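Lecture notes, unit on protein representations.

Consider one protein chain, 132 amino acids long.
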Amino acid sequence: MNGKKDPLSSETDRGTCVALIFALVAERLSVYYEHHQWLTEAQGASLAADWLTRSRRSLPIGDRRHLSALSDQLARQIAATLSREAGLYTAHEMMESLDPNHQSDMSRSLMEECARMLDSGLPDQASTKGRA
């Protein structure tokens, strides 16, 4: 045992990662609809670092890049299924939902999708369950 904790091993850390994916998707969609450009994986990882710093947390660069890639995949899926008007509304609703006082059924549903993305983006997680 090397003493290092897997950053995605605890439920609290998992919740942080899901919230981070959600925040990155919201940012990616906002940038896409405002500037017609997608953020790069590196830009997403940098935004992730900023978000984590504000919440007094940290993740290694590899994990931030992985979460950035997952958020990019989900943001592009969302954008591909929505009209521009619906996409603008969704991006706005997600950005509003970054405030914990804002409650939204749409955002709860998208947060669940972020959790599914995280779970599906960790193929080796099942093989490490049960190990000490």
